[in-house]
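re: the backbone from monday

yeah here it is again, tokenized this time
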């Protein structure tokens, strides 16, 4: 068992005039792909504006509203992806065991396809909205019924659905990071991976997503639990292609700017990400633009779906959380989203992948001109790193591995001893943990995969002996590094 030493007290940086310092630090051996700036005429609908970057902008559609022409006019004009709000759920599609009914689901599906839209499937295995017969099942009978349900629904839509929410909301809220108790969970912890394997066999063309809410804030236990599950699935070859972030933001679960870190970290596991049920209490234009920009910033973010058309169509109408008023007029948040989509109109490029340099190299601080150094050439686990005059000795030679580790002496890793501001950055025997993985960004910042925080010279120090810590990324030159 490894143990983390507790982080030293947070060191406050003097950020004063240094905010103005523009970084010139580009990590020398990192392959950086820069999208060419292409100019487009601004598009006038959400779907077309999102399509400029190869993404979609979708909405939930309720079959019962398809004879409301104000509703269908807006939905058809603005959106190019559709999710059935309730019609593809378990109670709707298999009301009696073994008897499938796709009447309402097909109404939504056919409306979408006849109007040129793609369809997200929602949802195949869920603790909620189970028909009565399923609620009463348990054990192997329920496991079999789950697989049967996945097979039945996916066969009906085989080759027609772009993404399926295979499993929905399997983690409990709060600080435990535990699975939610449910009849499905009680069939055994492997129910989720079984659902994904069944789904892959049923329709190999569909992207298979895990979908949940309250998983947008990177620091939340539920987010970390979902991350650990997806990482485990990828490591063991469980077929998962995407993660859906429902993004129901409200006063109890507000938007946090670390959502972008969350999307980036999941994408770095090798899955696509999507914003699947967006609504925001009060519909702040700023928050809507922030969420849109977060998706645009992540090449593997496939698109955004809002959970309804007008405020009056929302499951939380009293929050007025959507982009259109009840009378069909556009709200200020609509314009914020459209402008953000039009501004971010370049085609997404693949995430810059750190290219391991052929040999070891020094990591030099842009502000200090000094190197990341293991004090006294120590090899002791837990030794905190410092800045020191660059001297090309082995205690300053760092090798970036394909896994994203920065190794020194061959078997010691750059290791974060915590996840908060001021956490010590030390050497520790390499063990494959996320606290030993780093993203080397094109702006010269080095970001901890586990924490989302930046490698930082404490207190803006530049002298020999300045300690190295984690700190919130703020674009300071004490957080920018070059490899030499
Ligand atoms: O259609 C019946 C109607 O005939 C009846 O008179 C009425 C009485 O309550 O109920 C109607 O059904 C309601 C249905 O929505 C259609 O409006 C259900 O009671 C109600 O429970 C159901 O709520 C849906 C909810 O999921 C159920 O969990 C919401 O519309 C739907 O927006 C919501 O969507 C979920 C996602 O699937 C998963 N993520 C969270 C999201 C919001 O809760």
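seq for it, each position gets an aa:
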């Amino acid at each position: 068992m490894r143990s983390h030493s507790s982080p030293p007290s947070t060191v406050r940086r003097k950020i004063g005039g240094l905010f103005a310092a523009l970084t010139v630090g580009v990590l020398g051996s990192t392959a950086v792909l820069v999208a060419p700036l292409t100019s487009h005429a601004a598009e006038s609908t959400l779907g077309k504006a999102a399509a400029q970057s190869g993404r979609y902008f979708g909405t939930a559609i309720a079959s019962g509203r398809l004879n409301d022409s104000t509703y269908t006019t807006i939905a058809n004009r603005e959106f190019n992806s559709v999710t059935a709000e309730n019609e593809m759920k378990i109670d709707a599609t298999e009301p009696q065991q073994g008897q499938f009914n796709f009447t309402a689901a097909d109404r939504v599906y056919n409306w979408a396809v006849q109007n040129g839209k793609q369809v997200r499937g929602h949802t195949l295995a869920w603790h909620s909205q189970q028909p009565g017969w399923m609620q009463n099942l348990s054990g192997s009978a329920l496991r079999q019924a789950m697989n049967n349900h996945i097979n039945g629904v996916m066969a009906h839509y085989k080759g027609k659905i772009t993404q399926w929410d295979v499993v929905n909301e399997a983690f409990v809220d709060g600080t435990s990071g535990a699975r939610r108790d449910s009849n499905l969970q009680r069939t055994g912890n492997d129910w989720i991976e079984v659902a994904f394997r069944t789904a892959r066999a049923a329709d190999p063309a569909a992207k298979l997503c895990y979908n949940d809410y309250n998983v947008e804030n990177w620091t939340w236990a539920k987010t970390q639990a979902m991350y650990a599950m997806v990482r485990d699935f990828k490591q063991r070859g469980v077929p998962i292609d995407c993660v859906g972030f429902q993004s129901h933001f409200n006063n109890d679960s507000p938007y946090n700017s670390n959502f972008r870190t969350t999307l980036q970290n999941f994408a770095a596991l090798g899955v696509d990400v999507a914003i699947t049920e967006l609504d925001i209490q009060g519909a702040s234009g700023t928050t809507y633009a922030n969420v849109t920009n977060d998706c645009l910033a992540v090449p593997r973010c496939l698109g955004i779906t809002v959970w309804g058309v007008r405020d009056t169509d929302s499951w939380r109408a009293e929050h007025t959380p959507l982009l259109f008023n009840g009378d069909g007029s556009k709200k200020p948040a609509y314009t914020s989203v459209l402008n953000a989509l039009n501004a971010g109109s370049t085609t997404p490029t693949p995430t810059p992948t750190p290219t391991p340099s052929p040999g070891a190299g020094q990591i030099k601080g842009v502000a200090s001109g000094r190197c990341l150094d293991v004090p006294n050439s120590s090899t002791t686990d837990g030794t905190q790193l410092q800045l020191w005059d660059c001297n090309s000795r082995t205690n300053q030679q760092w090798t970036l591995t394909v896994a994203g580790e920065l190794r020194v002496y061959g078997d010691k890793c750059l290791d974060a001893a915590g996840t908060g501001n001021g956490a010590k950055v030390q050497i520790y025997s390499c063990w494959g943990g996320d606290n030993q993985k780093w993203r080397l960004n094109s702006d010269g910042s080095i970001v901890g995969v586990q924490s989302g925080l930046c490698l930082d010279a404490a207190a803006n120090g530049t002298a020999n002996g300045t300690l190295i810590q984690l700190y919130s990324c703020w674009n300071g030159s004490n957080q920018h590094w070059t490899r030499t």
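Residues 180 and 356 are 40 Å apart (CA to CA). Confidence is low (pLDDT under 50) at residues 1-38, 348-357.
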